[in-house]
Amino acid sequence: MDIKNLRLNYQKSAIDFSNAEDNPVQFFLNWFNDALEVNKDEANACVLSTISDENKPDSRVILLKAINESGFTFFTNYTSSKAIHIENNNNVALNFYWPELERQVRISGVAQKISAKGSDAYFKSRPRESQLGAWVSEQSNVVELNHSFESILNDLEKKFDGKEVERPLHWGGYCIAPNKVEFWQGRPSRLHDRLVYEIDGNKWNKKRLAP
Ligand SMILES: Cc1cc2nc3c(=O)[nH]c(=O)nc-3n(C[C@H](O)[C@H](O)[C@H](O)COP(=O)(O)O)c2cc1C
Known about the structure:
Layout: H1 24-38, E1 45-51, E2 57-68, E3 71-77, H2 81-88, E4 91-98, E5 103-113, H3 116-125, H4 128-136, H5 149-159, E6 171-185, E7 193-200, E8 203-209
Antiparallel strand pairs: 1-2, 1-4, 2-3, 3-6, 4-5, 5-6, 6-7, 7-8
Helix pairs in contact: 4-5
The structure holds flavin mononucleotide.
């Protein structure tokens, strides 16, 4: 396979710059609904980038679990590498790529832990096996090659038998308050449409960018 010949001529859609929403979260919701129509299972998968305490970027896929005026919320382990990075530097980026729509969204913002009440509410809505899973793993810690998570899970099943699984305090949500959001729509001849929103005090400025 000669990968240098892999390319698509994007032509599915265009950004209507003159009628674009004034708020990028509203614009995002429109595109997110389109993404759900073509890929309802993983339209919410996105790449979260953080900066380590050695100033090195790091990226991983996460699942977005809520979107509102305050921002974009995901859940994780508060002892994981990403959480340690955020503690040190809460400037983060999210990247969504929806190939079926030839669209990308890039979000820069500031991550903050959500309230314990908010984390509890989402934790309660998770399937029981996911709730137990949050107790099993110290995410991103090194473990022995023959480490058995199953035996820990069995012990936890006994511990919580007949009881509601409590949220471990080391597990919860972050909300990313956006300060810059760029929408990219693939266009023919690489003349892609790009619309960027940047926050200025409490209002959003909109600009078109060259492809
Ligand atoms: C499709 C997909 C969805 C994922 N969703 C999450 C998520 O919502 N939260 C999470 O902590 N990790 C999620 N992960 C795992 C992360 O990519 C990553 O492996 C893990 O969080 C450890 O990252 P860290 O060591 O940088 O903290 C997901 C991975 C994939 C492939």
